[in-house]
Amino acid sequence: METRELRYFVAVAEELHFGRAAQRLGMAQPPLSRAISQLERRLGVTLLERTSRSVTLTEAGSVLLTEGRAALDAVEAAERRARRAALAATGRPGLVLVTKAGAAGELLPKLLDAYAAEPGAVAVDVLLCGIGEQERLLRDGRADVALLHRPFDSTAGFDAEELCTEGQVVVLPAGHPLTARAHLRMADVTALPGLPLPRWPNLDGTYPDGPGPQVRDHAQLLQLIALGRASAVLPESCRAYLRPDLAAVPVLDAPAVTTVIAWPPHSRSRALAGLVRVATRL
Amino acid sequence: METRELRYFVAVAEELHFGRAAQRLGMAQPPLSRAISQLERRLGVTLLERTSRSVTLTEAGSVLLTEGRAALDAVEAAERRARRAALAATGRPGLVLVTKAGAAGELLPKLLDAYAAEPGAVAVDVLLCGIGEQERLLRDGRADVALLHRPFDSTAGFDAEELCTEGQVVVLPAGHPLTARAHLRMADVTALPGLPLPRWPNLDGTYPDGPGPQVRDHAQLLQLIALGRASAVLPESCRAYLRPDLAAVPVLDAPAVTTVIAWPPHSRSRALAGLVRVATRL
DNA sequence: GGGCCGCGATACCTCCCGGGTATCGATCCT
DNA sequence: AGGATCGATACCCGGGAGGTATCGCGGCCC
Q1: B98-163+257-281: same fold as B3-71?
Q2: Which fold has domain A168-251?
Q3: Chain C: nucleotides under 7 Å from a protein CB?
Q4: Any bridge partners for residue B164, and if so which?
Q5: Contact, A89 vs B59, CB < 8 A?
Q6: Beta-carbon contacts of residue A240 (< 8 Å; ≥ 6 apart)
Q7: Topology of the domain covering B98-163+257-281
Q8: Are B75 and A6 inside 8 Å of each other by CB?
């Protein structure tokens, strides 16, 4: 199977419409139709059920969609990492580390400093991304290594080492009655009148149903909390960047958050191995 | 990048010889040379350093070799799983489970029976393979799920659930003086005169240097032990299939062996999820 | 219900590019 | 020096990817 065929199929499977898919691919519709039929004939499998009014995925088609996306990511990753390896030989950037904006507050600078002091250290680019994007970036080669937070981020498909574990705190407007308490329980937090937990976007940009304001990043969230419109449960280390009009109270029974360093299971380059070694020794 | 180009590059990178690589690919040498140069031009990267007498990998080339292999595996996996998903809709086999021959003795039949009793269970093919092959089969789509043994097998790149943990025993010829002991330590075993631990093949079929006989499978190994030419440290459950001319003694400080069920992190099909659920409940 | 529209399939053409053969040029080995 | 080895270059051919034109089928609307 050629990646071209796979790209075509993924486009059609996502659009469920040959015309739109062809447009997205920058080609005419007939060759696309033909390419898909050829692919089906070669695989000996029907991927799409088409009437002249609608296109739907068969079971095999939906398997090929998810597996094919992963395969295309892997091909892209190979290409990107090879290209970067050539640059790294001459100059910058040797490694790309990705993490969520506003997370891993003090750990990251410590890690970068410690690694830079190592003999043979290469340049490390830091890439800040939105919620849940790290895994994609790691899989398609735009990043080499990530700082993730279990259990929020999944380390499925990656090698990982635990770095540190911390409890969680609830962030409230300064002066809220509960800020007088030394600690709370999740039951106290979920029952807070007028201060619902926010809703984070799914990977596709849509929001889950339910109460609570929609937020896209930490700055928005903190603003909303300061306005008395929301509360949030965050890792303890968020205290480092808390605005003075906010207060944090430990939540005893919130799940502990573990910061891990994760990387794709191949690509065990010297540079990456060095960075991981430094990280685990911190 | 097309998979064709990637296959070509991997062949040349492995052979380090355009002529042989072309032969392996079933094509002439000139188009292969041209394809590789085109790939290099498109990537903007030198992958191979060639003189008229030798071919060597650049840094970028060696990155592309490992990443490219993984990418090709992923593409193959997508193809195979799509093809199998179509079969599963009509008939056999719905899932392919791979494990080492001679391992997971009693667990496997229990798992298969329990899963078969589930409502909506699909047919499960069992694939027995040699040491260290499971990961490859899982990655390139010939298998959907594997029983692995940590710390011997790596679960890097897969999702996994622990099933059970057991100690290890040393297997000796029946009647050997040490079989009278209730338990041993690793130091006793490694120092055994005339009964060295065997050498298992690497992934490429070569054997590591050192003393001890070369073995390829458990039958060979047990035969050698019965002959008084070797000993071996194996998980406790091997007692189930021990020949009467062999004896086993627990080794207290040998690392514990954990049997895990592992699967690729996408492909969370209903059938697979069901099998995993049954496995963790055993 | 007949005509229209939307959409995928088919027919047919063109041209690019992947693959072949012949040959060159460089390097190493007698 | 001369032959052998091996990758690069030159040139040719055929298949197939992509384009345009058109068909056929099924909703939909007046």
Answers
A1: no
A2: D-Maltodextrin-Binding Protein; domain 2 (3.40.190)
A3: 6-12, 18-23, 25-28
A4: B259
A5: yes
A6: A105, A106
A7: D-Maltodextrin-Binding Protein; domain 2 (3.40.190)
A8: yes
Res A104: pLDDT = 62
What is the DSSP secondary structure assignment for residue B151, as one 8-state letter?
A: T
Question: Alpha-carbon distance B112 to B97, whole Å?
Answer: 10
Contact B138/B147 with Cβ under 8 angstroms?
A: no
**Whether the Cβ atoms of residue B178 and residue B252 lie closer than 8 Å to each other:** no
Extract the tokens encoding B76.
Answer: 């193959």
Q: Where are the domains positioned within chain B?
A: 3-71, 98-163+257-281, 168-251
Yes or no: say if A83 and B67 are a contact pair by the CB < 8 Å rule: no
Of all residues in chain B, what percent are helix, strand and coil, respectively (each to 5)? 45, 20, 35
> What is the value of pTM for the model shown?
0.85
**Segment A181-231, tens digit of pLDDT:** 888 898 888 877 778 888 887 776 778 887 778 887 777 888 888 888 888
Indicate the residue type of B52.
S
Which residues of B, range 21-80, sit inside 8 Å of A by Cβ?
43-47, 58-64, 66-71, 73-75, 77-79
| Largest interatomic CA distance in chain A | 69
Q: Which nucleotide is nearest to A20 (CA to C1')?
A: C7
CB contact under 8 A, B159 and A157: yes
Region B194-223: what's the mean pLDDT?
80
For chain A, where are the E strands, in sequence order? Answer: 48-50, 55-57, 95-100, 124-129, 145-150, 159-166, 168-173, 232-235, 246-251, 257-263
Architecture of domain A3-71 in CATH?
Orthogonal Bundle (1.10)
**Residue corresponding to tokens 């409230």:** A172
| Tens digits of residue pLDDT in A244-256 | 888 889 999 989 9
- Cβ B82–A70 below 8 Å, yes or no? no
